[in-house]
Structure formats: C-alpha cells, structure tokens
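My current task is to audit a protein record that another person submitted. Alongside the sequence sits a line of tokens, each denoting a local backbone shape. Where you disagree with what is written, explain briefly why. This is what I was given:
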Amino acid sequence: MTFRDFPQTPLSLRYLLLELLVKLFTIGIFSVEEGLKAWFELILVTTAICASGYLLWWQVPLLLIVVILSPIAAGMFSLLAPVYMNSENFTANNQFASTIQFISEYNLKEILRLSGDDLEQRLKQIHEVQKIFNENPKLVEQISKLQLALDNINQTHDIAVTKVTHNNKIKERKRYEEAEFKRKEWEDYQESLKKAAELKARQEKWLNEQRRKAQFTGGCPPYNKKCRDGYPIKVTIDKKEDGFDGIIWKPSDTEYEGIEPKWCYESVEEAEKEHGKYKFRRPKNSRGKPRK
C-alpha cells in the first residue's frame, strides 16, 4: 500500500473526518444482514457520506440530512450495540485500522520537514486527532493497530511541540535582537544629534568671540590666508573715498584667486550688511558702477 492508494484530499480534511470514519468502520459497516441491522447501517452510511460531502463541499442540504439522520442512527445503535460489540466485527476492520496507522506514520515523517505556520497548523490538527482518540478509548483498546496509530500521533505531537517551541524561541530572540538593534540605532542617532549640537554651539561661541575681537558683526576669520568652507566671499580692507572700508570679492571675479582675505562671509549680501567697524562694497566696473 502506498500513499497514492488513498484519496488525494488534504490531510486536514482527513483529520476532520477521522472521528466519523473510525466509528463507522469499526462497528461493522459491511454487514449484509437484513432487518433492523441493515436499515441501521444504511442510515449510518448515508449519514457518513453526507457528512463527508458537507466537509468537502460545504453544501447546506447535506448538513441538514446529517442533522436529521444522526439522532435516528444513535437511537437504533442503542438497541443494536450488543450485536456489534463482538470481536469478529472489530477484526473485520483491520484494513481500516491499517489505513489510519499508515496516515499516522506518514505524518510522523512529514512533521520533520514542516516549519513556520505549516507546522503550527499541523499541530492544531494533531490536537484534534488526539481529542478524537481520547473520546473513544474502547475502540483503541479493542483494535491494536489503532493503539499503534495513537502512539505515532502522540510521538508526532511531541516532535511538533518541540519544533514549535524551538521556533518560537528563535522568533522571540529575533524580535529581541531587532528591538535591541533599533534601540541602539536610536540611541546612536540621538547621541550624534547631541554631539552635532554641542559642536555647533562650540563653533558659534568661538565664532562670536572672533567677531567681537575683530569688531565684525558677521562672517568668519580666514585660516592660513584662505576662506574656510562655507564662507567663500572675501573682503579686503582698503579705505575708499566713498566711505567704504573695503571691497567684496566673490569666486567669479577674475581677481579672486590673488586676493588675500581680511575676513570671509557666506554671501555677498551678508558682507554688504556688515555694520561693525567696517563697511564693504563690490568693486566698480569701468563705468564707475558696483559690479553685480
């Protein structure tokens, strides 16, 4: 017997049908006797088929038939129970027990390759199967192969629980590591902002001191006869007759590279707004007008 010999329906549906099929086959469904027993088995088979069809196709009429026939079958079984509860009827169903055992062995092997959501879903299905067997202890006691199947199911359950627990620990550790990484990243970011703010404060303090000493209200002192980054505009001290104290030079001026700055500014506008000890203007063109 191979796995292809069984109906190719999802294993989850087989689990849902397991309780119904166990009860159905283990009470001697293949009886050919006449009378009340034959009618009982006809009703039971019809109920089983309708229940199976409902679980497979979710058709409401099938469910209604099950609801109607199930109480009838239950009442008839209370009268016929002594007839069925004999060893001959149980031994006649070894083939079904073998099928259940085969499915349990298949799942025992399959559980080893499952992971993630598939593993957790299978564990829920195993819980359902265990519940079915636990609710039918007499059947398990009287059919030895069902006990073997139950052992396989319990072993599968233990493996699944171990794997799920291990996976949950991995997920929890991963969540913790991600949270720690984000926390550390946030702390580093805040620390960088703090250091940047402290550096800016020190630079502004130093710059204000330099301006005060040199009697400037804006700009920045040059370094090694060159303007610092961010302050490209040069000014020179050269008292003019029009009342200005120096000239403003920008990088586009042809004379720019040869000019040694007295002070530097971020823009021409800032240099023109200087209102400390000095006043500056742009150099004049050939027509006597300040350059743009």
Q: What stands out?
A: Residues 6 and 99 are 9 Å apart (CA to CA). Residues 11-55 form one domain. The two ends are 97 Å apart (CA to CA). The chain has a mean pLDDT of 75.
